[in-house]
Amino acid sequence: KQEVTQIPAALSVPEGENLVLNCSFTDSAIYNLQWFRQDPGKGLTSLLLIQSSQREQTSGRLNASLDKSSGRSTLYIAASQPGDSATYLCAVNWGTDKLIFGTGTRLQVFP
Amino acid sequence: DVKVTQSSRYLVKRTGEKVFLECVQDMDHENMFWYRQDPGLGLRLIYFSYDVKMKEKGDIPEGYSVSREKKERFSLILESASTNQTSMYLCASSPQRTPLYEQYFGPGTRLTVT
Lengths: 111, 114
Fold this sequence. Notes:
The complex is a heterodimer of chains A (111) and B (114). Chain A is mainly beta. Chain A has no helices and eleven strands. Chain A has strands at residues 4-5, 10-14, 19-25, 32-38, 44-51, 56-59, 62-67, 72-77, 86-93, 100-101, 105-110. Chain A starts with a strand and ends with a strand. Chain B contains no helices and eleven strands. Chain B is mainly β. Chain B has strands at 4-6, 10-13, 19-25, 31-38, 42-49, 56-57, 64-70, 73-78, 87-94, 104-105, 109-113. In chain B, the strands form two sheets. In chain B, strands 2, 4, 5, 6, 9, 10 and 11 form a seven-stranded mixed beta sheet that branches. A four-stranded antiparallel beta sheet of chain B has the order 1-3-8-7, with no helix packed on it. In chain B, strand 5 (42-49) and strand 6 form a beta hairpin.
């Protein structure tokens, strides 16, 4: 069964830290992987999309990497800020018309 | 920028009522999706559509139906609302059917059924 896992479920860090969020998937034959941010009570905002042929994507302080052979993606956030506090979800497409989502990591960055 | 809008942010309905949730996208996307999101269960796909008047069941279609009469609009219908349908409902769209490219989400509708 194709599954996506995100550990830990919650993370609390002081402002200014560099941090890594993890996403694992069971089948390495992915087509692409997408990272989203969700603020409480709101919809999802797309952060980064990595195609299977790519190793990483960057946007500002965010860097997402992909290692298909080990079934992992990481989202690196540099110099974290309180405004980064949100839930981060990863979602995988295995070449079909569906995304499979992880259950997310709830991040809190405190001043 | 892609914009996906949902007709209501919050809804409160009574058990047995028929409920309509509307979603509109403005980027001429082929695919549209309805998810529900519950604590501990993540996002689960209810229905999706890849063309006008076309629909496909997702993982949890029971108790729901959908309508896509125009390309930009995708409606989720709860035929007879029940308390276990209290949830956050999220609509999304995507430009290509298979394989799936980037999905864009609306702001969500928090539905409470009493």
